[in-house]
Specification:
Layout (H helix, E strand, L loop, with lengths): L8 E4 L5 E4 L5 E3 L15 H24 L7 E11 L2 E11 L6 H14 L1 H6 L5 E5 L1
Parallel strand pairs: 5-6
Antiparallel strand pairs: 1-2, 2-3, 4-5
InterPro entries: KH_dom-like_a/b (IPR015946), OHR (IPR019953), OsmC/Ohr_fam (IPR003718), OsmC/Ohrsf (IPR036102)
Family: Belongs to the OsmC/Ohr family.
Protein name: Organic hydroperoxide resistance protein
Length: about 140
């Protein structure tokens, strides 16, 4: 693969530290969620992954929609990233909730969402590694 763009970010002090991108546009305090024993101050890697995957999937949906001549410009994608124990370590699971415009019928919407799942880089990176559930709402 010839990269068109490479994002660079550095995290220090793990889940209770800071993440900063090389251009300084991203500069976040990280913190453990209350559910994992933290104080809930700061964002966490799962929120960042959920936001990135949702944005990327929405772009992929727009691409396949344009190719099919279907306007999905008002679609919204909500990413849910769960983390839990698996064996001696931890694992992730993703649910993507897609809200399509009312003008898109159910069959067309399902087809476009499945096509987006095939072209989205996040979907391609996670395929076979973590469960990803697609929900059309």
């Amino acid at each position: 693969m010839d990269a068109l763009y490479t994002a660079v970010a550095t995290a220090t002090h793990g889940r209770e530290g800071r993440a900063v991108s090389s251009d300084g546009r991203l500069d976040l305090q990280l913190g453990l969620p209350v559910e994992m024993g933290g104080n809930g101050q700061g964002t966490n890697p799962e929120q960042l992954f959920a936001a990135g995957y949702a944005a990327c999937f929405a772009s992929a949906l727009g691409l396949v929609g344009r190719r099919a001549g279907v306007d999905v410009g008002d679609a919204a994608v909500t990413g849910e990233v769960g983390i839990g124990k698996q064996g001696e370590g931890f694992a992730l699971a993703v649910t993507l909730r897609v809200e399509l415009p009312d003008s898109v019928d159910e069959a067309t919407g399902r087809k476009l969402v499945e096509q987006a799942h095939q072209v989205c880089p996040y979907s391609n990176a996670t395929r076979g590694n973590i469960p990803v559930e697609l929900v059309i709402e």
